[in-house]
Amino acid sequence: MAVQCTFSIIKPDATRRNLTGAVNAMLEAAGLRIIAQKRLRLTEERAKAFYAVHKDRPFYDDLVKFMTSGPVVVQVLEGENAVDKNRQVMGATNPAEAAEGTIRKTHAISIEANSVHGSDSPENAKIEIEFFFTPEEIVG
Ligand code: ATP
Ligand code: MG
User: Fold this and answer.
1) Is 85 in the pocket of ligand 1 (CB under 6 A)?
2) pTM
3) Nearest residue to 6 via CA among 114, 128, 95, 140
4) CA–CA distance, 35 with 104 (Å, rounded to integer)
5) Measured CA distances, 66 to 13, 93, 121 (Å)
6) pLDDT digits over 71-130, tens only?
7) Residue 74's beta-bridge partner residues?
8) Helix, strand, or coil here: 71?
9) Does ligand 1 lie within 6 Å of residue 59's CB atom?
10) Active-site residue 117, yes or no?
């Protein structure tokens, strides 16, 4: 498996608790390199667009409200098999089901306030990276 990029978000529940560095340390310990990173506040419009795939799910409105409730840190992560590796270090969507040692088991509060987002495929990683970053902002 070649070197790959994936997209990551440190969500408002984690930035609120000052866990940006703690999350980054877990990503780096897993062998992922943070090759782009910025802290921003999502507008309602941007959060709706980012999560458009979930627009018919019952949790969509709450998810948009949560994702706009505080700062997020958006990132590009690089590494061997980065998409799957990041999903592994994140853990299951519901922290109650996440494996020991994962970010969500260690830090997440609930199935919604679950501290991190990670792309679920290389195709979505490309789309999500381009949603937030210009090529000049990504320094591998
Ligand atoms: P993400 O896309 O954020 O990496 P994921 O791929 O593990 O998470 P998805 O099914 O894509 O999970 O859901 C996107 C996000 O929507 C979840 O991370 C969580 O914040 C929220 N979410 C998912 N399921 C629920 C639910 N049943 N109730 C409330 N919020 C939910
Ligand atoms: Mg997802």
Assistant:
1) no
2) 0.97
3) 128
4) 22
5) 8, 15, 24
6) 999 999 999 999 999 999 999 999 999 999 999 999 999 999 999 999 999 999 999 999
7) 9, 38
8) coil
9) yes
10) yes
